[in-house]
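Q: What changes when pyridoxal-5'-phosphate is included in the input?
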Amino acid sequence: MELPIPQNIIPLDSILPDEPLLMMGAGPVPIPARVAAANGIVINHLGDTMSQIIEQVKVMSRYVFQTQNGYILGVAGPGSAAMEMAIANIVLPGSKVLNICNGFFSSRLWEMSNRIGADTIKLQIDNANAASPALVEEYIITHKPDVVTIVQGETSNTVCNQQLPEIAKIAKHYGCLLIVDAVCTLSTMPLKMDEWGVDAVITGGQKGLSCIPGISLVGFSEQAWEHIQNRQDKLKHWCLDAKLADQFWNKNSYHYTAPVSGILAIHEALRLICIETLPLRFERHKRCSEALQAGIEAMGLTLHVESNSRLNSVVGINVPDGIESKQLLSQMSSRYRVEISGSFGPNIVRIGQMGEQCRAHNLFRTVHALGSCLNALGAKLNLPEGVASLEDTLGRANFNGE
Ligand SMILES: *Cc1c(COP(=O)(O)O)cnc(C)c1O
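A: The predicted holo structure follows.
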């Protein structure tokens, strides 16, 4: 007997809104047209065309990661797959790992280290603060870890470990391998893999790089690569085994069928970053995020994180008392077609400033939608003041976000 044919399946164009929502949340973010076009193409995963594209992806990634000889591997999967690839290949079962945890994603690195069977020490940094180098050093001296993990930007509560360069230096000084999650920050703010001495940089497609979700990159330092090559044990993760992925990424042969469309998309995302150049891209992100923050504060709202720990790539806003963030999000999306994010923990909403989100026209639309919907829900915000401040801050920088 055959199963019945599914009935009443609605075609996508009847499900999706006529006008796409403006994706201003914590990711995925809007993608440039060239990235979208590349994502619609399928080619032979092992042909000459593919190997030329892979070579370019590696060259451009090294620029974006700021590493001369780092080993770049792609992974078919979310940012979490890149996190797991870094952990699984660098952390040996039984080895000692210091996990610096500011929130949800950095704690995921701790969780993954535990699952590998590492002897983990969790350094929990609470209350939306950045990690302090002195405290990290104290933990390293006490616990003597082999590996340290940290997030550059903690998307979940919008904290930035602004002293990452100092922390990296300390980790190096004590001979630890350092894994940095840069999913939401890479290409939005400086990260210098070689200069800072980072051993593994993790990124995903759909945040800082302004690409699609489901394709991710990991960069390993020469020292990390040597460590991986010297491992005698067999990894439990077959798909994430860097030695096997090396077959495809460096030796032109087969590991698993690569996500060809995703790789073409990330090629275009990286190429657009190279055309823009990192310094100008960082400048655009900083200006736009600071103008957004100024606009939000000027209308009478408060930001979740103090400026010395604040992340620019994702901005956390305290929701005024008596207002449900769920209601706010649904109003913004139905009335103005603007999508922002809620949060897993604190009573905040989050606006992303990653890639295509950092454009003046998107900022005005988002600030207006936020203020207008909050007022409709009973807040007493000065929306014109917020918009004026956004305009003023962007203008003062003689910068239009384009
Ligand atoms: C989003 C995010 C991740 C996880 O990425 P997924 O693609 O959802 O698996 C990890 N770390 C940080 C900092 C992130 O922002």
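Observations recorded in class: The radius of gyration is 22 Å.
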